[in-house]
Amino acid sequence: MASYNSNKTVLVTGGSGQIGSELKLISSIIGINFLFPNSNEFNLFVTEDIMSYCNKIKPDLIINLGAYTDVDNAEVEQEKASLINHHAVSQLGKYSLENNIGLIHFSTDYVFGNNKGPHKYNDLKSPINHYGLTKDFSENDLVRINSNSLTIRLASVFSDKGKNFVKTMTNLILDSKDINVVSDQKISLTYAGDAASLIILLISSFFLNNSFNFIKGSFFHFTNAGYTDWFSVARLIQSEVNSSEIDNESKLHAITSKEWGARAIRPNDSRLVVDNNWLSSKGMVIPSWEDRVKKVVSSILVNRKMEL
User: Fold this and answer.
1) Which residue among 11, 85, 197, 243 is the one 20 to 30 A from 39 at the CA level?
2) Number of neighbours of residue 6 by Cβ within 10 angstroms
3) How far apart are CA 166 and CA 130, in angstroms?
């Protein structure tokens, strides 16, 4: 696959999440030693733990998937969200700088707030909730601390694992009759499996170049092709469920975000612009969000049938 020395160690934080779980499944295709420490081995809340673990294993590259992603609870547990999403990232940035290694950090579309999208990587940021604010702070710190870091912004990650909108909505449609879904927020979607494939591509390119100079700037957006809204996603999921052999009596009702009344304010338009030409030049063609939603719903339905 690659001509670089494959005797490399990649530290992956947050490896038990959606993307980390997908990365574990495909990490064997590249001749690199991946480490996926659990929270007992690598505690993002404690600076000393971060530094001692990194000094012990001496990674050649860090992939930071660790994050506090509960947007609503971040408004209540602000200190906890800040420790994981901001301060821990700063420590990883300092370590990678001091030891001359690379760092790939994952951020969010929510750094853009209510400015009109779709958003390019260098658009003005203006987060409107605490989760977005912590991610904004970590982005700014990495730009200031470490020039050999790369921040990947994702949007609405989903898979058949963990907690996410597609999985939750599929189960609601299977189990509920009346479901309210927000229809006035413009979004992008990111399938965790495709994000994991991007990580493999970035790792290979980084070790061939020993830097991120193969990408222009310190930021990169990655989502599946196309834009949508939550209600349209729910409607597609309902269509897939209806075409299966599992009976359901669900009815979807479009509501506004104001009617939903979530604790944290969400952006009205958080769509991201993705450089598909660059991805294509690297041999990576990104499927549409519709194709990936169908894939995940199909997987959930198969599991559901096995449980019946």
Assistant:
1) 197
2) 12
3) 23
Half-sphere exposure of 92 (CA within 13 A, CB side): 34
Q: What are the strands, taking DSSP E only, across 14-160?
A: 33-35, 61-64, 102-108, 149-154, 157-158
Over the stretch 24-79, which tens digit does the pLDDT of each residue have?
A: 999 988 888 999 999 888 999 988 889 999 999 999 999 999 999 999 999 999 99
Phi/psi of residue 202, nearest 5 degrees:
-65, -40
Q: Which long-range contacts (CB under 8 A, 24 or more apart) does 86-90 make?
A: 86/134, 86/135, 86/137, 86/138, 86/141, 87/47, 88/44, 88/45, 88/47, 88/50, 89/64, 89/138, 89/141, 89/142, 90/138, 90/141, 90/142, 90/145
User: Residue 80 corresponds to which tokens in the numbers above?
Assistant: 């906890």
172 falls in which pLDDT band (50, 70, 90)? Answer: very high
Q: What distances in angstroms separate CA 1 from CA 196, 260, 305, one per listed residue?
A: 17, 49, 39
How many residues appear in the chain? Answer: 308
Element (H, E) at 301: helix 289-307
Both tokens of 245, joined, read 């052999």
pTM of the model: 0.95
d(CA 45, CA 91): 11
| Cα torsion through 189, 194, 196, 202, rounded to 10 | -100
Other C-beta atoms lying within 10 Å of the C-beta of residue 132: 27
Give pLDDT tens digits for 282-305: 999 999 999 999 999 999 999 887
- CA distance readout (Å), 44 to 50, 57, 95, 176, 268: 6, 16, 13, 38, 31
Cα of first residue to Cα of last residue in the chain, in angstroms, is 43
